[in-house]
Design brief:
This protein is mostly helical. Among the domains are: about 80 residues, no CATH class; about 35 residues, no CATH class. It is rod-shaped and about 125 Å long. The N and C termini lie far apart (about 120 Å).
Length: about 180
Amino acid sequence: MSDSQPDLLTDAPSDPAAKEVTEPSVISSGTGADDADDRTPAANEAPSISKSQRVRDYIAANPKARNKDIVTALGSFGIKVGDVASVKSKLRQHGDKPALKRRGRPKGPKKSESKVASDPKPAKSTAKPARPAMVSSTDATVGIDVLEQCVEFIRKAGGIDHAQNALDLIRRIRSL
């Protein structure tokens, strides 16, 4: 280089006004290396606040805001819809916001709770279950008086389960 022109890379300008003139303008090459210089001034103001914290702060100030509204307000900070949805999901998990109403059929009780809450059932026998009775023409013509006697037998036995156990015993005795 010649002695008449200052070397811009190594020589510092003598006065501050000359520095503004001699600094080259930054042109983004699209490679991503210079993208930090292309940020909006709002993004450079407070880089210590994360995107998630910005979304949390906005939600605290505007609890009824939709994801789309939050992105519109905070889009200059590089916040996208997915960022907002993720933060809202985390807030719901930690109980900061009421959980969404569950749609569909309500959940049933857990199996362990249902066993504790119900009355204990009599122990089932380990005997081989009886074969189902074949339907015959006489089954279809059972009269009311026979049904009434069956109901009376069930009451005397102490319930349908006890009556069934008694009938199973009778079947086993007959099979011997």
